[in-house]
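Homework help thread (please don't just give me the answer)

Our assignment gives two proteins as sequence + structure token strings and asks us to describe the second one. The first is just a warm-up. Here they are:
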Amino acid sequence: MITNKTFEEIKVGDSARMQRVLTKQDIDVFGLMSGDMNPTHFSDDYARMLLERQEVVGHSMWGGALISSLLGNELPGPGTVYLSQSFEFHNAVELGDTLTVLVTATSKSADGTVLFDCLAVNQRDEKVITGVARVKAPTRKPTEGASPYAAMQLHRKMAFKRLIDYVKDWERIKVAVCHPCSREALQGAIDSAEAGLIDPVLVGPADKLRPLADSMGVNIQPYRLVDALHSHDSASKAVALCRSGECEALMKGSLHTDELMSAVVPSATGLRTERRISHVFAMDVPTYAKPLFLTDAAINIYPTLEDKVDILKNAIQLAHTLKIEVPKVAILSAVETVNPKIPATVDAAALCKMADRGQIKGAILDGPLAFDNAISKEAALIKGIQSQVAGEPDILLVPDLEAGNMLAKQLAYLARADSAGIVLGTRVPIVLTSRADSAEARLASCALAVAFAHQQRGTAKSP
């Protein structure tokens, strides 16, 4: 609904506020629209070299644009005419920062102008922007109810926010954070703790972790620290905490995935179950209406048909954990017909028949499907494919790790998707994070582990 406050309605002291999280999409779009392609906004290397910061920073005027948005949309609202604006910039805005923007009417003039104090602070209550705006307030109310431009909004990624909100009020789970000896790894664990998702147990060399935390201005005193000699020792001790039941999830820090998994896999000391271990990407794609689960793009290189059965069961169990009662599974290949020369098509047909016979339960399967037929109902109809899955899959099963890894990265870098990652088929869920992950993606990965752990406890709640 369009509404505003006219000059007559505005009183000194009236205020409006809004909150926004700075995402990579915001930086990219603002850079393209403004023409400000300063590399410190797009490259961590340039940010370190030129600004001595660890990662890219947002455009300062992005915060200024939020102030303009608040004045134009809410107070005074539609009909407002900007006359002048002054800004002072006090702190940089980093990826994942939450800006709270506030405008407050401070005086009115007989000529219909209003002065507003403008303020933007981050989640640490640090001033980012202060300033004064002078505007001509509207003199009449809108006569039409709906905005003619509602359909022109940019599609914003919301799946991860909904996921985090879904579990944030649940009881925290203890998570063994394995070797968080980089800024990104340690910050991800602390952010998840401060968001109320996890109670981290930091496993790593104390003589590295404490100086790292001090250099970041992070207080790790509230969290248990298990000293380890090196990354191999960190992996062994973190896995042991999960095996003993002291921790309900494992989180990868700054060691290599293979190093962590080498401690997970042994039957006698690790976290294996009777089911094949596999990885699931939960992807928040701006051009897709719901979360998209992609498996397996990180663990199983060339999975057999038997492996794919377990990979599917793991992904379906994750979907059920998130209250997707009957997930739709697209089994991908290069073509949509069964061709003995393309083994993935034969596997797809076998998996679908296994589902028909009740060997794979709790989902609707279809395949083989080429990616266009899987993701687009129109593409499927053009080829004469009648499918309950085409155009609306929840899960994409890829033929092998290479195909899955390339698809996940294409979605991330061409479609601006965010991806959270979790390993299943183990005694506890394993959170796999990457240095390239956004702050929200790291939180979403933890949220997946929280949901899965509560499902194993039998304490998962309805969405």
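The one we have to describe:
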Amino acid sequence: MSRMDGFCGVDVVSVEPLEPRLLRLVFSDGCRATVDLDGIVVDYCGVFAPLLDPSFFRRVDVSRDLGTVVWPNGADIAPETLRAAAAPPALPPSK
């Protein structure tokens, strides 16, 4: 099964970290969104604690295997969670 056959059917293909803990995302269907991690991560503890350090937060990358954002310590967030938290709502692909 490929990632595209997963639950949400849409992967993250591009990420740009913004301050303080915002991510600008592009999904595999072309939708673009900005996500505030403070609205997703209730407690910055455990694997998420390093994300409070701006220099570590900026080390975010996209895992093609997982289809989502990851950090060097193994922290990741499911693409469907990111899509649901998009603010403003995910924009449709431009034509």
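TA reply:
I won't write it for you, but here's a hint about the kind of observation we're looking for: The chain has two helices and six strands.
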